[in-house]
């Protein structure tokens, strides 16, 4: 475990240094991200001016929701976006290059495709949304805020794990691009509070495809809509879901490796 952590730290260092070589591109990405964030601020201010309570969400809660959503996508795009593309390494035989390394191939592939500047690019938007929530009257309770951030981090890992699990199907059927695109399309549901959905759909997005943990649950917790005790309960549920998907992923991975034959191997 210690060697994994040291390799992860070194990979992040190299990635950050590499990012400094393309500073102009990085600044343009920040500008584009801020333009998107500002458009979302204007959009929701317009909606909330007409409907001060959007399905029970006031302006402070909405901006918290947007902040956690931005944080989720920043972490996902920077460190885990390749998880849904592992099928390509399997189908094309590129997995060989990683199987010969003394490191779990999945972790090694992830580290090769880190884009840490994308995480830092998301931070101005996160802080702007938090500032707007503060301006709207929100005052943070730090225990709830810390748990909310932790839930977002765990949710990011969970969805990478789900995408990785579906990528393992490539050992049997080849390309799973359609599955990856389908999962990516579900992220659209996370752009709006899931409270607006019918109860059956809410349960689906809480227990089966837990999109609620991306931004809805963290925002409810940080805004006070959800008590700290209920937040702990949801946190336990999230950890159990992660454990289930870890087991499924490991079973699929090991079964797939037993039948793996590459062009180069």
Summarize, please:
This protein has 13 helices and no strands.
Helix content: over 70%
What's the overall geometry?
Answer: globular
Provide the structure class.
mainly alpha
Strand content: under 5%
State the domain count.
1
Order of helices and strands: HHHHHHHHHHHHH
Q: Using DSSP, what is the number of strands?
A: 0
Radius of gyration: 20 Å
> How can the largest sheet be summarized?
none
- Tell me the distance between the termini: 28 Å
Mean pLDDT: 85
- Give the count of helical stretches: 13
- Uncertain runs are none
Element layout with pairings:
Blueprint: H1 2-20, H2 23-50, H3 59-80, H4 86-92, H5 96-99, H6 105-112, H7 116-135, H8 142-167, H9 170-173, H10 177-186, H11 199-208, H12 216-223, H13 228-258
Helix pairs in contact: 2-3, 2-7, 3-7, 3-8, 3-12, 8-12, 8-13
Explain what you see.
This protein is mainly α and 265 residues long. It has one domain (2-258). Helices cover 74% and strands 0% of the residues. It is built from 13 helices and no strands. The protein has helices spanning 2-20, 23-50, 59-80, 86-92, 96-99, 105-112, 116-135, 142-167, 170-173, 177-186, 199-208, 216-223, 228-258. The two termini are 28 Å apart. 34% of the residues are buried. The model has no long low-confidence stretch (mean pLDDT 85).
